[in-house]
Amino acid sequence: MDKFGEMTVFLRVVEEGSFSGAGRRLALSPSAVSKLIARLEARLNVRLFERIAGAIRLTEEGAQFQRASQRVVDAMAEAENIAGAAETEVSGTLHIHTPLTTAKYLLAPLLPALMARHPALKLEFIIGTERGDFVKQGIDVAIHSGRPTELSLIGRPLMPRPWVIAASPAYLREHGTPRTPDELLRHRCLNFTIRTQWNAWTFRESDGALKSIDIPRHIGANQGELLRTLAIEGLGVVRLAEFNIAADLARGALVPLLADYREKTDDMLYVLYPRGRVLAPRVRAFLNFLEESFPAGAGAR
């Protein structure tokens, strides 16, 4: 096996966390994978994995080799993508995993231009607030917040996602307008039921310090779109992504609150796709389209 093949096997072992797991994915026996890694370590004259009680763990040198190997594999995949881009028609079904609000408010307005450019392309959305399983759910790309921690995924920054606290005029007439973050503790608030960093509302104090408050939940939901509707109906104060409620703020259906305490958030949306694969033309076309549509995110890499 050549050096590139060795790197591919090594990265699969890292991803799966075992020789047997890598063997199943590569149609090799665990002993064949183990022997290949041993030969690689002998050639490099360094130990890449610690073998402890039947488990394996990357050494410091192994972690360095993993980062360098991943760059090589990614560069090879990108080179193959570029070489085949001009001659391949974009068709087939693209499976996109993302929350409802992202699909509705960010992607849907862009889709006419995408479909006009690639008329043979078909789209299927898999809606979910938590990152899905790319293999089990057949996902091609996903759009979610936060840089991916999975070694199996690449994340491209798409756009910053600022958050806004707001309530309807009817709610504020009945319950008053909170002037400081602590006053929210006396208000009816709408919040997510899923376990997420979004549940704690963060504010920037006058001295520049960050303050995080665990907001009591009067009504909860696992979808931001429902929380938006509840807020418009006057049921409480909500904190949602700005793109989710921008139109409601513009038409006065919701009123922004506590602007002086608004945090300059580092929350970033990422487009995610599997690492180490030659991308299908439909995936490559979609990634290129997003990079054109969100140039600010591309500059954040």
Written account of the structure:
It is a single chain. With 301 residues, the chain is α/β, with parallel strands linked by helices. It folds into three domains: 3-84, Arc Repressor Mutant, subunit A (Orthogonal Bundle), CATH 1.10.10.10; 89-159 and 267-298, D-Maltodextrin-Binding Protein, domain 2 (3-Layer(aba) Sandwich); 163-261, Periplasmic binding protein-like II (D-Maltodextrin-Binding Protein, domain 2), CATH 3.40.190. It contains eleven helices and 14 strands. The chain has helices spanning 3-16, 19-26, 30-44, 60-85, 100-107, 111-117, 169-175, 224-232, 242-250, 281-293, 295-298, and strands spanning 49-52, 55-58, 92-98, 121-127, 141-145, 153-160, 163-167, 189-192, 200-204, 210-214, 219-221, 237-241, 255-257, 268-274. Strands 4-3-5-14-6 form a five-stranded mixed beta sheet. A hairpin with a 2-residue loop joins strand 1 and strand 2 (55-58). Helix 1 (3-16) crosses helix 2 (19-26), helix 1 (3-16) packs across helix 4 and helix 2 packs across helix 3 (30-44). The longest helix is centred in the first third of the chain and has 26 residues, at 60-85.
Explain briefly what this protein structure is.
With 301 residues, the chain is α/β, with parallel strands linked by helices.
User: What's the CATH class label of the largest domain?
Assistant: Alpha Beta
- Helix count, DSSP H or I runs of 4 or more residues: 11
In the sheet with the most strands, the strands line up as 4-3-5-14-6
Distance between the termini: 34 Å
Task: Tell me roughly what share of residues is in helical segments.
Answer: 25-40%
Beta-strand residue percentage = 15-25%
Radius of gyration: 24 Å
Q: Globular, elongated, flat, extended or rod-shaped: what is the shape? A: elongated
Give helix and strand order, one letter per element, not per position. HHHEEHEHHEEEEHEEEEHEHEEHH
| CATH topology (fold) name of the largest domain | D-Maltodextrin-Binding Protein, domain 2
Uncertain segments are none
Any idea what the CATH architecture of the largest domain is? 3-Layer(aba) Sandwich
Q: Main sheet?
A: 5 strands, mixed
CATH superfamily of the largest domain: Periplasmic binding protein-like II
Average pLDDT works out at 86
The assigned structural class equals alpha/beta
Number of E-type strands: 14
Instruction: Compute the number of structural domains.
Output: 3
